[in-house]
Amino acid sequence: MSLVKLTRKGLFHEHMFEITEILLLDSEYMVQKGYGWMLKEASNFDQQTVFQFAMKHKAVMPRTALRYVIKKMSKELKERAMLQ
């Protein structure tokens, strides 16, 4: 959660993906929600890279996190994320 504000400003994106990969399999709901929110904010700056990251990890990413990641994306990307 502490990185959400920085991510909102477009900072630390390279570290954000590294941190997310470390937390990806965490079973805690609030952790999933936190990194999903961080990725959602990052999508304001680089939506395609965030979408590609989410699709790469979709098989193991909890649905809670995925829903947060795609929340601000276009209807088309949301549908692609939920169907694939």
Structure report:
- This protein is mostly helical and 84 residues long.
- It has one domain (4-83).
- The chain has helices at residues 4-8, 13-23, 29-56, 63-70, 75-83.
- The protein is globular.
- The mean pLDDT is 88.
Q: Helical residue percent?
A: over 70%
Distance between the termini: 28 Å
Secondary structure category: mainly alpha
Give the DSSP E fraction (strand runs of 2 or more residues). under 5%
State the helix count.
5
* Residue-averaged pLDDT: 88
Uncertain runs are none
Order of helices and strands: HHHHH
The largest sheet, given as strand count, sense and whether it forms a barrel, is: none
Total count of domains: 1
Number of DSSP E strands: 0
Question: Rounded to an integer, what's the Rg over CA atoms?
Answer: 11 Å
What would the principal axes of the Cα set say about the shape?
A: globular
Tell me the layout of helices and strands.
Blueprint: H1 4-8, H2 13-23, H3 29-56, H4 63-70, H5 75-83
Helix pairs in contact: 2-3, 3-4
